From TrEMBL, chain A:
Keyword set includes Hydrolase: no
Topological relation to the membrane, as annotated: Multi-pass membrane protein
Chief site of localization: endoplasmic reticulum
Organism phylogeny: Eukaryota, Viridiplantae, Streptophyta, Embryophyta, Tracheophyta
GO CC terms in record: endoplasmic reticulum membrane
PANTHER family xrefs: ER LUMEN PROTEIN RETAINING RECEPTOR
Alphabetically ordered keywords of this record: Endoplasmic reticulum, ER-Golgi transport, Membrane, Protein transport, Receptor, Signal, Transmembrane, Transmembrane helix, Transport
Name used for this protein in its record: ER lumen protein-retaining receptor
Region forming the signal peptide: 1-28
Family affiliation: Belongs to the ERD2 family.
Cellular localisation: Endoplasmic reticulum membrane
GO MF annotations, alphabetized: ER retention sequence binding
C-alpha cells in the first residue's frame, strides 16, 4: 500500500464518519441525498461479496465491513429513524436513481475482465460508483445553500477519488503489469463529476464564506 | 497471482 492509497481510504472513511456524525448527533440529514446513499449501499453490497471468498488483509476486510455497515446504517437512519427521516428533503431529492442501475448493469455484462458472477458484479459496482454521486450533486445544486458538514462530506469523497488517481499513477510506475482500464476510466469519470463542486467549495473556503452553489 | 491481487483496492 502506498501513501496515496492510504490517504484515499482515510478520506473515504473520514467522509462517511462526518456524515454519520451529522446524522447521529444533530439528528438531521438535511441536504443529504437518500438516492446517493442507497446507490452506495448497492455499490458496496455488490463489490464486497468477495469478503466471503477471498482474503487480502485484515485492513482490507475491516474496511469492507465498515463501508458495508455504514452505508446500510445511513440508509436505515434516513428511511426509518423517527427524527432523522423528517429532515430528509424528499421533494428536492428527485433524481431517478433506478435509471442509473440498469445501464450500469448492462455495461458490466458487456464490458468486464472476466465473465464470472463475482467479476460482473464487481465491475457493475465500479460503474455504479462512478455515477452514484449524481443525485447528491443535483440536490446540492437545488438547495444551493449547503451546510458545512454536507459540503465537507462531498469534499472528502472527492478527495478520496483524487487520491486514488494518484495511487494508480504511482502503482503504474512502480509495479509490473499494473493495468486496470475499467477501474481507471470509471474512476476518472467519477472524479470529473466532482470538478464543478470542488471549484465552488475551494472558492467559498478561500473567501471564508458559506458554500453556495449557483442555480 | 493475477486473480488474488486484482481486487486489492477498496
Amino acid at each position: 500500500m502506498n501513501i496515496f492509497r492510504l490517504a484515499g481510504d482515510m478520506s473515504h472513511l473520514f467522509s462517511i464518519l462526518l456524515l454519520l456524525l451529522k446524522i447521529h448527533t444533530i439528528k438531521s440529514c438535511a441536504g443529504v441525498s437518500l438516492k446517493t446513499q442507497e446507490l452506495y449501499a448497492l455499490v458496496f453490497a455488490t463489490r464486497y461479496l468477495d469478503i466471503f471468498t477471498g482474503y487480502i488483509s485484515l485492513y482490507n476486510t475491516l474496511m469492507k465491513m465498515f463501508f458495508l455497515w455504514s452505508s446500510f446504517t445511513i440508509v436505515w437512519y434516513m428511511r426509518y429513524h423517527n427524527v432523522v427521516r423528517r429532515s430528509y428533503d424528499k421533494d428536492q431529492d428527485t433524481f431517478r436513481h433506478y435509471f442509473l442501475i440498469l445501464p450500469c448493469f448492462i455495461l458490466a455484462l458487456l464490458v468486464h475482465e472476466k465473465f464470472t458472477f463475482l467479476e460482473v458484479l464487481w465491475t457493475f459496482s465500479l460503474y455504479l460508483e462512478a455515477v452514484a454521486i449524481l443525485p447528491q450533486l443535483v440536490l446540492l445544486q437545488r438547495t444551493r445553500n449547503v451546510d458545512n458538514l454536507t459540503g465537507h462530506y462531498v469534499f472528502f469523497l472527492g478527495a478520496y477519488r483524487s487520491f486514488y488517481i494518484l495511487n494508480w499513477i504511482y502503482r503504474y510506475f512502480t509495479e509490473q503489469n499494473y493495468y486496470k482500464w475499467i477501474t481507471w476510466i470509471s474512476g476518472l469519470v467519477q472524479t470529473a463529476l466532482y470538478a464543478d463542486f470542488f471549484y465552488y467549495y475551494v472558492k467559498s473556503w478561500r473567501n471564508s464564506e458559506r458554500l453556495q452553489l449557483p442555480a | 497471482e493475477d486473480d488474488e491481487d486484482s481486487h486489492d483496492e477498496l
